């Protein structure tokens, strides 16, 4: 399980107070709530990228101690953000972006197949591809280290319906294969109804 227990977090002041949430292996939990309610803040806490003021995060029974990019337990959690252009180095080809977390570059082809990126696209840089194609590369990169949990923060906001359906399909297939748990943050109630097993509102 990926669990937030009584988490209070924010910046100069808390934006979420005493929030608890659990994502079980294989489960998809939706996270909804009005703009500014702290969904992304909770996502960053659960992705071990933001230290809460109070409360704990547990991954498969182990309490998280380090909240920073290099934290040991970070590789168990994959993250996808709303704007793929902000999360890929503009100088990198998609191939290099996908390979970033990998020691063994051999898996790039397999990951690209998973998200349906062709060889031609893998050779291009972010400004030469669409948002949807770049988000596919970000999904491949997020799955590169076989995360136990995947956090999708408004992953599909920039995308059309068919790309959204394709990415959700890839994530579902990954979950079925590996038993990973997913936290899906979205403003789109219709999408969450279809995608999530249950939805929590902040
Ligand atoms: N880095 C930051 N520094 C200071 N305040 C921040 C920072 N990031 C977010 N906030 C503030 O924290 C509050 C919650 O923001 P957050 O992005 O978590 O909400 P959200 O529910 O994801 O919103 P949205 O649906 O609009 O993406 C907002 O008032 C926001 O202005």
UniProtKB/TrEMBL annotation:
- ABC transporter domain segment(s): 1-202
Q: Does the keyword Iron apply?
A: no
Signal sequence, renumbered to the chain: none
Query: Which Gene3D superfamilies does the record match to this protein?
Result: P-loop containing nucleotide triphosphate hydrolases
Q: Which UniProt keywords apply?
A: ATP-binding, Nucleotide-binding, Transport
Keyword Transmembrane, does the record have it?
Answer: no
> Which GO-annotated molecular functions does the record name?
ATP binding; ATP hydrolysis activity
A Pfam family it matches: ABC_tran
Q: Which GO terms describe its biological process?
A: transmembrane transport
Family membership, please give it: Belongs to the ABC transporter superfamily.
Question: What's the name of the protein?
Answer: ABC-type dipeptide/oligopeptide/nickel transport system, ATPase component
- Source organism of this protein record: Lentzea albida
